[in-house]
Each structure stands twice: as C-alpha cells, then as structure tokens.
Amino acid sequence: MCGIIGYTGKKNAVPIILDGLKRLEYRGYDSAGIAFFNKDGIEVRKCTGKIKDLYSVMETDKPFSNTAIGHTRWATHGRPSEENAHPHRSDGIVLVHNGIIENYLPLKKKLIDEGYKFASETDTEVICHLIEKYSKEYPLEESVRKAIKEVKGAYALAVMDEKEPGKIVGVKKDSPLVVGLGHGEFFLASDVPAFLNYSRDVIFLDEGEMVVMTDDGVIITTLDGIPVRKEVKVISWSPSMAEKGGYRHFMLKEIYEQPRAIADTLRGRFYPESGQVNMDEFGVDKDDLKGTEKIFIAACGTSWHAALVGKYMIEEIAKIPVEVEIASEFRYRNPILGRGSLLIAITQSGETADTLAAQREAKRLGAKVLNICNVVGSTSSREADAVFYTHSGPEIGVASTKAFTTQIIGLYLFAIGLGRLRGAIDHDSAIVLLRDLLFLPGKVEKILASNEELVQIAKELFKADDFLYLGRGINYPIALEGALKLKEISYIHAEGYPAGEMKHGPIALIDETVPSLFLSPKGRLYEKILSNLEEVRSRGGRIIAVTDEGNTEVCNRSDYCIFIPETNPYLLTILLVIPLQLLAYHIGVLRGCDVDQPRNLAKSVTVE
Ligand code: AGP
Questions:
Q1: Is the pTM of this model over 0.90?
Q2: Which of 61, 180, 538, 575 is the most buried (most CB within 10 A)?
Q3: Which residues pair with 228 in a beta bridge?
C-alpha cells in the first residue's frame, strides 16, 4: 500500500504535503514525490528513499504553492526508482495513486498503440495517460470519470490538471481515501494522520465516490456525477494513535488488515470462472515448471511455517515432491538439488541473511529460484529468477501476521496453477478451490469480529508459564505459528507440536497449569485429534479448542472454545491462525510486553 495526500487552500501547500507524507511513511517508504502548481504550471519532484530525502530535494528553493499532491510509495509493480516514484504525469495531468490496476497491461498496450510514451514500469501511469486523453475534451472531473470506467482494480487517486489551477479531484475504489475539512483549506489523504495536525473534521469516502476540491470547498459525487450527502466525523485520536489507524499497536492493525491484504494479494491473479491461475504473476518459465521434478522451500521463522503449509498444498494439489528446509540449515548441509529442481525462498522482508544464503546456494547448484516476498526491490527478490509479490503492504510489527497469511495465499495459487500445468488437478476441481478464495476475506472478517472472546480467554490464561499448541497434518505448521506468536510477543514458553506426538514425551508436561490449544476442525484427522485432546483432558490439562462453528462435540470437552467458519482444508489454515494471532496479541498486552517491538527481536534478521 502507499500513502497519498493532497492540499488546496490559502497556506503554502508544500510543507503541509511533506509533513503529511512523513505521517504516512508507515504505509510505504521506498520512494516519494510531490507535485505543486507554480507560475509555469505543475512541477513534479520525486526521489527514491524515505521522506527525509524528499525534504532535502525541496530544501534547496523552498517553493510556495497553494495546491499540491504527494505520495510515499510501497512498490507493487516496478522496482523502487525515481521513474517509478509518484506523482506520474501525462502532459498537463499529474496524479498519485494507491492501489493495484489489474488490467494495466492491456490498457498500456492500447495506449502505446495510440502513441503514448511510458516513462515508468508502473501500473499507475496507465491511469494518467487515460485521463490526459479525455482531458483534451472534458474538464478534469469528467476526464477522470471516463478514464476510471476503463480501469479494473483498486485505486485511491488524487489528480490535478495544469489547465485548472487550485483543483484536486479524488476517487476511491477498494483503497482508502479521506477528506479533511479546514477553514478555507481542504485535504485529501489515504489516512487521517496525514492532516490531523490541521483538521479533525473528516469525511470518509465510500466505494465509487469522487471528490472535487477547490479552495471554495468540496463537492462529493458518485462516479456518475450524482451529488452525495456525507456525514462529517470528528477524529478524537492522538496523532500517534492515528498512525495506527486508531489501533493501540501496529500488530493489531495489521491483524485487522488481513482481509484487505488477502484481497490485494489475490487481485488479478486468478480467474475462478475458468479455473485458471495467472501464472505470469509467478514469473517462472512454464517449461521450467513442467520439467521440475522436485521442489525445495527454504525460509525462516514464520515464513518457514508458511513453507510447511505450502508443502501440503503443492504435494496434494500438484502431486510433486516438496522438501521444506529451515534456511540456516539448508545453506550448510550440501543439499542435493540442481537442474530440474526449483527452490522457493519465502521471505517477508527479502533481506533475511539465512534465506538469502539458501537461495544463493540453490542457484550455485543449478536450481531455479522463485521468491515469495513482500518487498519489491529487496535483495532476495532482485537475485531470484522469479518473484511472486505478496501485496500485504508494509508490515511494521515485528511479529509477522498479514505477511504470513498472504504467503499462504501465494503458495495456494502456485499449487493450483502448477497442478493445472502438470495436469495433476482437473478443471472442475480447480474451479472449486479458486471459488473458495472469493469468500475468504469475508470469513476472516467474521473471525476478527469475535475478538472480544479472545480477550476474555487471554484474561484467564495470560499468567501461564507454559503453553502447548497442537495440530495435525496441514494444521501442524499453524500450531507452530501460534506458539511462535505467543513466544515472541509475550515471552511465555510455548511449543507447537504434532498432536499425535504428544504421547511420545510432551504429555509429561501436562497438568492444570499448562494450557493446551488444539486446532480441531472437522476433517480427515478430526477423530484423531479428538482422542489426543482426550489424552490431555484426562490428565487434568486445560484445553482451548479451535473448531468449526457449532461443533459442540469438541466444546463440551474443552475449557475454552473458539469457532471459525468452514472452508477447504488448505484455506482453513488461514482461518485457524487468525484467533491464534489475536490470542498472542492480547496475552502480550496483558503481560505489559512491547508487542510491536518485542525484546531481543528485529523485523528483519540480516545477520547469520
Ligand atoms: C515472525 O513473527 C518473526 N518475526 C520471524 O520469525 C520472521 O518470520 C523471520 O525472521 C523471517 O523473516 P522474513 O520473512 O522477513 O524472512
């Protein structure tokens, strides 16, 4: 995700835009830019790096302007560079964009055929040229309306036209956009923190709404130009809370961002009606994929847990053997792989030293490397042969949440796409699996709505010294992930274990002081996990069960019960992990821990 901001009014817009971008930097920080009206028209200045670098660019002459827009970027299409930084321009049209344009490639081809020259690799630039095309005949707001009708995807836009000084047009679809109301001055931004120092009176735009801002005021309409009456809300948050979107911690905000992060990661990558995955988004040569005899997946920490889930998905759906390795082990064990092997390196940051070393080792041995990563232009993504970018946006909290669930989305799509390529899964089965994705964000939302139940369970258990997390099959990696979340933010000793393994030793740990969390949804191994639960219960262990809505059979045998909606066993891993993230978060907060920056940890471990 990126951060956009616009201002028009009597003050100098430039320092307001720069200050606003600083407050939006948590939304993305690989490059930034500003566009402002001056006596000659609209000037654009942009740079790679952080907002402080843009400050330096503006420091030289400190320009004055009453109307400006700005952008801080989290790259999704096109590496971080000055050319790819926003604002983008097409003749007199200049704009900034937050979102993802699904159909930018066909639109780009059509515009090039019409003679437009592209200066960047981004999807955004397409919108710019489309608006410019219409602006030859129509005023800015009408040009935007006509251009947007050709665009598919998510966008929050702020657009200016040299022919109309002082005017900013904003449009919202699937990306946030909020209007700030000042006295004779108006703001437009991705999020409230951008202008909270200047105004607390805000209007949140809804889907398909457009705002036309001049220093006379704001007019809000639908994309068809029908005026809309909007409620003005007064923000009571402090600026610091506002950066967290009103959440107490970035980790909680990022847990709640998962429905959108999943939707953004899915956008443009699968076609449920045809049962197809857009394998171009993985960038692996199709012949290489067809010739692959074995897949290795290397990663660390939470990303390793995603790798373990990926093994089950790829082996069961694409019918190809998968070996999962902790990257720090893989790199030193002289692995047997080479041509005909594919290494998938999973890393949120793209800078984890062990994972980077693992993918370098695989390349040295002749294997192809696919990177699943959340940071465009990171070292891992630049060195890999191919990259699938998760679009979860910057993950600020050290404990990985939305990056994990979107990594699983990437692995799920890869398994289905590879399965179709290899003829391992038929058309109808693929349609069923892909259709389940359409309902996933809503099911995650439903679990998030039961947060209060997790708070109550956390209040009962936060004083425990030891915790066990138990799962079977594809849910065993989720048990590992739940334990890691608790460990790293509450400092409680927690272990994830295959539930069937309990009787081979760990069950000696059980007594009434040790809570055991069982991932016990209905499924092939349900009866087995139920008997493991009974083994613990009969020894006086306290039991938390995560199971299907209404499953009283499990709940009657547990001290605490957490319900989740049903879906296929693969996507169930995502639904199962959400309550574990929330439980770990609330226990960490109750224990007074710094949940965003836990002791001894770093967001990206760039050393061995
Ligand atoms: C996850 O909550 C941890 N912070 C940590 O295990 C992390 O997953 C690991 O360091 C790997 O990071 P990466 O995904 O950026 O490579």
A1: no
A2: 180
A3: none
